[in-house]
Amino acid sequence: MRYPEFMVTLKKWTVDELLAMDKAGLLNPEKRIELIDGEVYEIPIGENHADVVDKLTEVLVKQFSGKARVRVQNPIFLDQADLVRPDCALLDAALDYRNHHPRPESVYLVIEVSDTTLAHDRGKKLGRYARVGIREVWIVNLNAGYTEVYRDPYGEEFLTQRGSSLAPLAFPNDAVTLL
User: Domain Putative restriction endonuclease spans what residues (predicted)?
Assistant: First the structure.
């Protein structure tokens, strides 16, 4: 006997649905949850990762105080299928984010600190950032000991440079040392 073929499709979530679940207390506030292409991901944070994010935050706050808002592991709305939590981001400081998460047009720079999440950050997340027009993404590659710089997206890809002392496109006179 032959059975009909069928496909199992997992539910794709929207940002509104994810935020409603969070508001209802269905998501663990201790977990770092992201929505990418409608799929929910729990992103681990190891000790080395956390230490680098802490140090990076100190550097960014010192360097960009009064020029940009430094956002640390908090949501950025890309579109209805994508709500990401980059490790750090530089945002337009003139805007008010009390009633909504930042949108791509208010993001100057996204920084991902990557060790166990390197493939995920370079793959799904980098493509999503490019697609919505975020001009610059830095991936601090803890495994290799350098920072990957992706600038001026077109389509799903960025041009790439490597370096450890870097200045964001939005602030070319403000270089920071990351590793």
Answer: 16-172
Which domains are present in the chain?
A: 45-177 (3.90.1570.10)
Let me know: does 161 contact 149? Beta carbons within 8 Å. Answer: yes
List, in sequence order, every residue forming a beta bridge with 76; answer none if it has no partner. 84
Closest Cα partner for 91 from 100, 102, 75? 102
Which residues are CB-contacts of 116 (< 8 A; sequence separation ≥ 6)? Answer: 44, 46, 49
**pLDDT tier for residue 156 given thresholds of 50, 70 and 90:** very low
Contact of 164 with 177, CB cutoff 8 Å: yes
Burial (CB count within 10 angstroms: exposed 0-12, middle 13-18, buried 19+), residue 87: buried
Which residues, 6 or more positions from 146, have their beta carbon under 8 angstroms from its beta carbon? 162, 163, 164, 179
> So what's the pLDDT on residue 9?
63
Question: What pLDDT, on the 0 to 100 scale, is given for residue 162?
Answer: 59
Cα–Cα distance for residue pair 108/48, rounded to 1 Å: 26
As beta bridge partners, residue 82 has 79
CA distance 20 to 140: 32
Pairwise CA distance, residues 94 & 18, whole Å: 27
What pTM, to 2 d.p., does this model score? 0.88
